[in-house]
Design goal:
The chain is mainly beta and about 160 residues long. About 10% of the residues lie in helices and about 30% in strands. The chain has a single domain, classed as Immunoglobulin-like (Sandwich), CATH 2.60.40. Strands 1-4-5-7-8 form a five-stranded mixed beta sheet, with no helix packed on it.
Length: about 160
């Protein structure tokens, strides 16, 4: 299958499946993961609300990639279909949310390559502690982007090989 056709197929599948990201133009503030499917219109969802079938938060299609509050990436590794991370951030008084975002673009190479970003929402936490947190995200939504079962992921200055 030609690479351009494969890319169109991936984008069509992602659009049909839904992205989990939302852009709003009305007065309600929407955040990533808020799908308003419950009809409650409370718009109180935060980053990381979309879970995969494995129960881990899933990689989300986000275009454009939203801004992120600062964090330090201590480690990143792929274990099965999960990207496992250790992060440290300034805070300690408020809940912090993390989301893994992908623009939907696939670089046509063998194997295909994608850029993903970790988005941190500190919820206006002004405390100075340095908590370290383990995070895990399901990458299985990338499967349609690679017909050969391998994708090179560029993430926070690192290159990771994801095989499935």
């Amino acid at each position: 299958m030609p690479n351009a056709l494969r890319l169109l197929l991936v984008l069509a599948l992602l659009l049909l499946h839904g992205t989990g990201c939302e852009t709003r133009t009305d007065d309600d503030s929407a955040t990533l993961g808020d799908d308003d499917s419950s009809g409650d219109d409370d718009d109180s969802a935060t980053l990381g609300d979309d879970d995969s079938a494995s129960g881990e938060p899933a990689l989300q299609l986000c275009d454009p990639i939203p801004p992120s509050d600062p964090f330090t990436l201590n480690s990143a590794a792929i274990n099965g279909d999960n990207l496992e991370l250790s992060v440290t951030y300034s805070g300690g008084c408020e809940s912090h949310d993390f989301d893994l975002c992908w623009s939907g673009l696939v670089m046509t190479s063998l194997p295909p390559q994608v850029n993903i970003s970790l988005i941190h929402e500190n919820n206006n936490d002004s405390c100075d502690a340095l908590p370290t947190e383990a995070l895990s995200f399901d990458l299985s939504s990338l499967h349609p982007a690679a017909s050969q079962g391998e994708i090179v992921i560029h993430f926070e200055g690192q290159t990771l090989n994801y095989t499935f």
